[in-house]
């Protein structure tokens, strides 16, 4: 009987060998520090030349948004390592020709999760990571993107996005 109970526990995965499970956070594509803010790029998505209204947060009323180029979505986690509020500015996306492309998240807000929206100037609380999604409209043939992470006051850093 005891052997059967041990076998069941072992097979069911409830047998622990003193190992602790370590939960991994999201994979970081690139990282930069600007003053007290640490920027971590979590994902980059090429959304193609059409944002479908059916994939927005209001599919019954939002129409498709079409581009002659394509839409790039960048998910970022920003952490303020200071003791006071810090302000970030929506970052530019820099392409292979050095063009600085502005964040268009406000124009496509129907596709931005409400809890990940940042518009123009956003405050970040100390020691509380904040997630943001930024959208950019780029040329059809643009490549080698870099995100220009920037605080309201201070320096900026480029983060290579790997595409």
Annotation keywords:
163 residues, mainly beta, Immunoglobulin-like, disordered N terminus
Architecture blueprint of SSEs:
Elements (H helix, E strand, L loop, with lengths): L1 H10 L18 E5 L2 E10 L3 E2 L13 E2 L3 E11 L5 E4 L2 E3 L5 E2 L19 E4 L5 E9 L7 E5 L5 E5 L3
Antiparallel strand pairs: 1-2, 2-5, 3-4, 5-10, 6-9, 7-8, 7-11, 11-12
Question: What would your notes on this structure say?
Answer:
The protein is mainly β and 163 residues long. It has one domain: Immunoglobulin-like (Sandwich), CATH 2.60.40. It has one helix and twelve strands. It has one helix at residues 2-11, and strands at residues 30-34, 37-46, 50-51, 65-66, 70-80, 86-89, 92-94, 100-101, 121-124, 130-138, 146-150, 156-160. It has a four-stranded antiparallel β-sheet with strand order 1-2-5-10, with no helix packed on it. A four-stranded antiparallel β-sheet has the order 8-7-11-12, with no helix packed on it. The longest helix has 10 residues, at 2-11. It is globular. The chain starts with a helix and ends with a strand.
Q: Tell me the structural class.
A: mainly beta
- Number of separate helices: 1
The stretches of 5 or more residues where confidence is low (pLDDT under 50) are 1-22
SS strand fraction:
35-45%
Secondary-structure element order, N to C = HEEEEEEEEEEEE
Q: Report the mean per-residue pLDDT as an integer.
A: 84
Number of strands: 12
Kindly state the percentage of residues in helix: under 10%
CATH class: Mainly Beta
State the distance separating the first and last CA atoms: 59 Å
Could you describe the largest sheet, including whether it forms a barrel?
4 strands, antiparallel
CATH architecture: Sandwich
- What is the radius of gyration computed over CA atoms, rounded to a whole number of angstroms? 21 Å
The CATH topology turns out to be Immunoglobulin-like
What is the overall shape? Answer: globular
Strand order of the largest sheet: 1-2-5-10
- Work out the count of structural domains: 1
